[in-house]
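Summary: Need help interpreting a holo structure output

Steps to reproduce:
1. Submit the protein chain below together with the SMILES for zinc ion.
2. Request a joint structure prediction with the ligand placed.
3. Inspect the structure token block that comes back.

Expected: a single structure record containing both the chain and the bound molecule.
Actual: see attached output.

Input attached:
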Amino acid sequence: MKTMSCKELGGACYQKFSANTFEEIAALSKEHGKKMFQKKDAEHLNAMQQMRSLVKDTDGMKKWYEERKKVFDSLPED
Ligand SMILES: [Zn+2]
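--- attached output ---
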């Protein structure tokens, strides 16, 4: 298992997510983001806005994804 925080995944807080693959951890952070969005948490809404402008095209999305995946891959196992 590896652990990344919401912030490291483009979010706004220090909640930690643990998963075996980057796909899993991305899904966990997405779920968390959805909850924060429903709560209208200002910091997460802000982070999502920034994120959206970063990934507004396929290239940006790919780049973001690959960069985060690299971070995940370089982390030590828990
Ligand atoms: Zn968060």
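--- end attachment ---

Reviewer comment: The beta strands are 2-5, 16-19. Residues 6, 11-13, 15, 32, 36, 44 surround zinc ion (CB under 6 Å).
Status: needs-info
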